[in-house]
Amino acid sequence: MNFFLRLGAYVLHPLLMPLVGTLLYFIYTPRYVEIDIAKSRLLAVVIITVFIPIVTFFLLRNLNLVSSIHLEDVKERKTPLMLQSLLILLIIKMVFDPQSSAEPYYFFVGILFSGITALFLVFLKFKVSLHQMGIAGVTMFLIGLSVHFQINMLLWMCVFFIANGWVASSRLHTNSHTYPELIAGFFIGFIPQLLLFNYWL
């Protein structure tokens, strides 16, 4: 059980959530999207939201700005969250546009608002759960896709709600977060996606 709970923090790492949401969009969109275009955009998302943050983490660790990938100290979160917000902004400007790809475009806008909110809370010395924020945001986006495309995705919804519980249990088990930090993370990830439904649903 200990291994299973710890595994949740890695399998459902917040760095992977933008990619998961993008994959869900390309899998279920009824619109015709050329395979090459879908691959190029997925590759861009992987590079910008996964590879660059990982490389940046090692650089920050060598500069003694962070001590571990878990960012346990609230002060260590400032620089990574600032950089992540800039990278998400890059995706919004360069990868997706609101005319041809409204769904993933506003998905990343929601991620940007969540990231900026988490950054603001860092300055208030509050360590929101980024894991919970990430999985909650993707869950809300999945619900939006189901409604928007009129597709029965109930099974996926159940999987993602279970994943929310897995993440929360994992973070509590490792004493990484408190209940208020997890609850805040859930709503900070969930609410921006919900509010942005007005622009693409």
Rounded Rg: 16 Å
- The chain-level mean pLDDT equals 91
Uncertain ranges = none
Counting DSSP H or I runs of 4 or more residues, the number of helices is: 9
Q: From the helix content, strand content and strand pairing, which structural class follows?
A: mainly alpha
User: Major beta sheet, specifics?
Assistant: none
Shape: globular
SSE series: HHHHHHHHH
Helix share bin: over 70%
Report the end-to-end length measured between terminal Cα atoms: 40 Å
How many strand elements? 0
Please indicate the percent range of residues in DSSP E strands (runs of 2 or more). under 5%
Number of domains in the coordinates? 1
Keywords: Membrane, Transmembrane, Transmembrane helix
Transmembrane segments: 7-28, 40-60, 81-99, 105-124, 136-162, 182-200
How is this structure best described in words?
The protein is 75% helix and 0% strand. The protein is mainly alpha-helical. It has one domain. It is globular. The protein starts with a helix and ends with a helix.
Task: Sum this structure up briefly.
The chain is an all-alpha fold. The chain is 75% helix and 0% strand.
